[in-house]
Design goal:
Blueprint (H helix, E strand, L loop, with lengths): L6 H11 L3 H5 L2 E9 L2 E4 H16 L2 E10 L2 E9 L7 E10 L2 E9 L3
Parallel strand pairs: 1-6
Antiparallel strand pairs: 1-2, 3-4, 4-5, 5-6
C-alpha cells in the first residue's frame, strides 16, 4: 500500500530506513521530546544517541501502512521489521509538529 505522507514525516521515515541518525535529528526541533519504550528523551543530542542505539540494537525498517491527522497530532502506523522479538510489529508514531519540525514523538504498539 502506498500512502502519501507529509514531507517531514516522509523525511523521518526515509532517514530511519537509511539508518541515518543525522537526517533523523534534522527532523526534530532542538527542544523536542520523544517517548519510546518507557523512556523520555529530550533534545536533539539525546535523540541522536537514542537513534544511534536503536539502529544498532534493532536494525529495523519502517513501512507506512496508515496515516491519520487529528487535532494537533499526526499518527503514522507502520510495520516495523528488525532484530527484535515479535518482528514485524505494528507501531503507531504519534507526531506533534510545530514550525516545520517534530516537537514531540510518542511511539506505541498499535492499539495501545
Amino acid at each position: 500500500m502506498s500512502i502519501k505522507l507529509p514531507q517531514l514525516i516522509a523525511d523521518f521515515v526515509q532517514a530511519k530506513n537509511d539508518h541515518n541518525s543525522d537526517a533523523v535529528i534534522a527532523c526534530f526541533a532542538n527542544d523536542a521530546i520523544v517517548h519510546d519504550e518507557g523512556q523520555e528523551i529530550r533534545g536533539t543530542n539525546a535523540i541522536k544517541k537514542w537513534t544511534d542505539a536503536s539502529i544498532e540494537k534493532y536494525q529495523f525498517t519502517l513501512e507506512a501502512t496508515a496515516l491519520v491527522e487529528r487535532d494537533k497530532e499526526t499518527v503514522l502506523t507502520a510495520q516495523v521489521s528488525g532484530n527484535f522479538d515479535g518482528s514485524p510489529a505494528s507501531l503507531d508514531f504519534h507526531f506533534i509538529i510545530n514550525e516545520g519540525r517534530i516537537s514531540m514523538l510518542s511511539i506505541r504498539l498499535t492499539g495501545d
